[in-house]
Amino acid sequence: MRSEPVLQVQALVKRYGTKTAVNGLDLVADAGVTAVLGPNGAGKTTTVETCEGYRKPDSGTVRVLGLDPVRESAALRPRIGVMLQSGGVYSGARADEMLRHVAKLHAHPLDVDALIERLGLGSCGRTTYRRLSGGQQQRLALAMAVVGRPELVFLDEPTAGLDPQARRATWDLIRDLRADGVSVVLTTHHMDEAEQLADDVAVIDAGKVIAHGSPEELCRGGAENTLRFTGRPGLDVGSLLKALPADSTAAELTPGSYRVGGKVDPQLLATVTSWCAQHGVMPEKISVERHTLEDVFLELTGKELRS
Amino acid sequence: MTTTVPGTYTPQPGAAPLPRMIAAQAALETKMLLRNGEQLLLTVVIPTLLLVLFSSVDIVDTGKGKSVDFLAPGILALAVMSTAFTGQAIATGFERRYGVLKRLASSPLPRWGLMTAKTASVLVTEVLQIVLLTAIAFALGWSPHGNPLAVLLLLILGTAAFSGLGLLMAGTLKAEATLAAANLVFLLLLVGGGVIVPMDKYPSGVQDVLGLLPISALSDGLRDVLQHGAGMPWGDLGILGVWAVLGLGAAGAFFRWE
Fold first, then answer.
1. Chain A: closest CA distance from residue B157 (Å)
2. Residues A163, A109 within the same domain
3. What are the start-end ranges of the H helices in A198-292?
4. Gap between the Cα atoms of A37 and B20, Å rounded
5. Are residues A211 and A272 in the same domain?
């Protein structure tokens, strides 16, 4: 079933004074989990906050669930859930009190007690927001984004500053949301997060989308992946190449050390090992190097992702 | 790890009915205010202390008659200022700073709904203050006169004027600046606005200027009615009306939500 995209951003430009935060950005997100990946200052938050209706585009158009987030804000707001990068809670409010309050603003909220238990917020007790740990504050903000049973949630760096366990809990919740048909748009500068969670990744740098696709497509689309093995020196690389698919490469880098490039999948690995078997070669130290989103990002921009 | 039944999160969006949203918001705002120690100091402790202290001990010459008859109307004006102006400015300033206003702006509650809830919360707090301070004033021998409708009008216009100024401050300055300025203004108006110090203690030229302040208009109007049994204090109502229009208008134009 194909439905209309949850997010359509066309040629979005947003400036703050003389600084251009978003510079002609195009992004279409379908149902599922979309990760907006990029270094700090790339324009992730500005893009997401424009979709949430907080900022008016200087030019370009934004449609969220088919609605203009500024002009049709009243119709859109009940249908989305928002997790800001920080804050959003009365400093004197307790976690459960704030979550119950947000639930009251919606017609069919989730069971608040179950959500509190699920996100481990029960231990906050009577502690007010300002005295909660950073991780507890993050999880409360996440809970506030989902409690109204939205169709689409925006999560701005949902796992920033979380310990590994809390991060895992957040990932599990995002997977459950997806399984139940909630669309998720999240920003992150952790490539593993995008690889683990996202159906679709938009890589943003300097206010533009520079690559877009599934994690697999992006990793394949960059430089080719490689398979390395060592064996006796002077193997017939030409013969190996003939056994491989057409777009592959093979070379002896240093005597006894070989590299095979191309679409490295189980079939290719089987082809290489069976060629070795036919030629009486024992491939030692055989290894596959997959490109990560981080490599892709580095190739696209020449910059580290976590800057 | 608790397992979650599939379908738990299946979308079922919708805003709660508007009156329920506003009531919930007003209840939460009032709870936050009553839980905050500094706010209680400002809205309850200081007015109560001033009323009791200055009625019992002859520190300021309040003219002829019982001092509580002079002080009670001024303290009621102070109570309105402490909640509608100082308290609301500080609370809203920090809500803006900590992203509360921003987060609520993307909730189903419309912005005007949030402002309605804030006003309701201010009014509820004022009712509590007035009940408490009136009871204390009666215990101190207060004998008020006058037209209750005039009192009500003064309190409402005073609340509108101070709310506008408080929100203007909260929506334009940084939270720390609002905190400092709102407290300073509170102190200056407490001394210079006819709350506990009669205006005729000041030179006549200064009096004319001070008389145009919203606090002077409110305390003077309340005193005219409650102490002297005057009819509608149109002059004071007019001054408060002008402040209300200017303050709320400027707040509406310049208020920034983040």
1. 29
2. yes
3. 215-221, 237-243, 266-278
4. 39
5. no
Q: For residue A299, tell me if it sits in a domain.
A: no
Ramachandran bin of A157, using left for φ above 0, alpha for ψ from -120 to 50, beta for the remaining angles: left
Q: Is residue A304 part of a domain?
A: no
Q: Is A307 inside any structural domain?
A: no
Residues 6+ apart with CB under 8 A from A221: A211, A213, A296
Structural domain boundaries, residue A270: 224-290
Residue by residue, pLDDT tens for chain A (307 residues) are: 456 899 999 999 999 999 999 999 999 999 999 999 988 889 999 999 999 999 999 999 999 999 999 999 999 999 999 999 999 999 999 999 999 999 999 999 999 999 999 999 988 888 999 999 999 999 999 999 999 999 999 999 999 889 998 999 999 999 999 999 999 999 998 888 998 999 999 999 999 999 899 988 887 654 467 888 998 999 999 999 999 988 888 888 888 889 888 888 888 889 999 999 999 989 888 888 777 777 777 777 776 665 4
Same domain assignment for residues A37 and A22: yes
Residues A127, A45 share a domain: yes
The structure tokens listed for A199 are: 């159906």
- Tally of domains within chain A: 2
Name the token pair of A299. 């190739």
Chain B segment 7-66 residues within 8 A of A by beta carbon are 7-16, 20-21, 24-25, 28, 31-32, 35-36
How many Cβ contacts (< 8 angstroms) between chains A and B? 122
Report the residue of chain B nearest A168, measured CA to CA. B1
